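Data availability (excerpt). The following record was deposited with the supplementary files.
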Amino acid sequence: MDRREDLTAPADPDTGAHGMTAVPMAVAGGRVVPPGVSATVRDRLTGWLHRVGGIAVLLVVWQALAATVFASYYALPTPTAIVAQAVTDWPMVWPNLLQTAREASLGWLFGNALAFALALVFLTVRPVEKVATQVALALYCLPVIAIAPILTAVLDGDHPQIVIAAQGVFFTTLVALMLGAKSADRSALDVVSTAGGSKWQQFLHVRLPAALPATFGGLRIAAPAAVLGAIIGEYLGADSGLGVAMVYAQQSLDVERTWALALYATLLAGAAYAITAVVERRVCHWSASMNNAAPETKPRSMARRAAATIGTALGATAGSVALWQLAIGGLDPYFAKGPADVWAYLTTPGDERSQLLAALGTTVLHAGYGYLAGTVAALLVAGAVLTWPAVDAAVMPVAIALRAVPLVAMTPLIALVFGRGVATVVVIAGIVTFFPSLVTIVTGLRSVPQGAVDLLTAYGASTLGVMVRARIPYALPSVFAAARIAAPSAVMGALLAEWLATGDGIGFLMLRASTSANYDRLWSSVVLVTTVSLIAYALAAAAENALSRNRFH
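Predicted structure:
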């Protein structure tokens, strides 16, 4: 808060006596602000200057590298060439941009509506939470590049793109909402319960307000994800949209137009992120002063936890199989394979199964490399964002751009720059891991109780000292919470790189199965990839729960 003081000019420098001339000055955050300048306005101007300056530096570096070091790579045009192409293509882009924005908006709306509905059910009917969460996770982990052709065959119009956009949104928001709702103040919950309030009233008056900061963190991730999902759906089969325009640009080897379309996609995703952030600042302006309560955990023995885990896994498997069988009911069995078909394929010894399992092992390694690279980068950038606020303004637009770039269209170009080996896999899987990890980790670093920060500051701790002693230990659960989203995303990124660039791993086998109409192998690959993603999620959740128990008990 600004403090205004009247500072009078000293009449006698030797005695320190003050004259009668008053010079109004503002003291804000330790800085003396000149008269007539609002500290808030100055801070906003400084933030915008940092943001514009950071982007300008990156563009200058890109321009120089594209014109010199990467001049022989026709896949990396200069920013000026991309902008010129974007301006030229505007009449063609506008209707496609509107179509993609419509699909992304509807996907975002339906996906988040589903997330809020499931969260309400989970919080009011606790016995179904764990099993239903695993079923929802299985739906989220389905590889889009494999199910998009099936959705296109089953649904008409732009419904497949809306479904894919919603799939990329709902689970991210669900995880964030549940994480925030479970951190609600227990005493406030007890007050509502004692007063005769129902679980719905607990959710409405206590849990939902407590969950808003974490939920908006999820919504910020979901906004670009909806745009990306819509574009992927268009790229894999649609009549119009930015993804379709990218297909035509790539088929004609028009690299500058491909990058220009990617620029429009980035701007659309950035606008979605910015709108969400603005709403968050309006709604959650009080969140910085709130202390997160301990998550609701009940101490249980190792045996009971193991039994609960096994029971949840069995229930989730049964629920997923039932939903799967229900979903393919009435479809042509030529391409719609059921649980029995996949089981028979995976349990039959032979070269087919051995080849599939070996390729799965390659994909797991690729995903692990990408996850580590993306998470380490997110940790370093998150620490820099909290230590030097100017980094936030410069880095976040770039992070949003990385998230918004439709990698399904840009992977061939990335492969031309980084080659068709592990480096391309690490770059692609790292990109899809980086953004959700960064947003979640930054939210965790900022959620440290203000009292702890003030105490360390009072004892002379520097910004870096506060980061090491308070923010990082307090944010460790957020690292594993981020892993619940980032680890399955890394698997999807590895599949994408294998499908379009490296020619190995289970992603490439899925491509060959799709083109050769080997639907038994394709569906079996989907099941194996989904299982790996579920295991990665379960490991991250177990680490997060173990850390929470050690921290609060």
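Summary of structural features: The CA atoms of residues 50 and 358 lie 48 Å apart.
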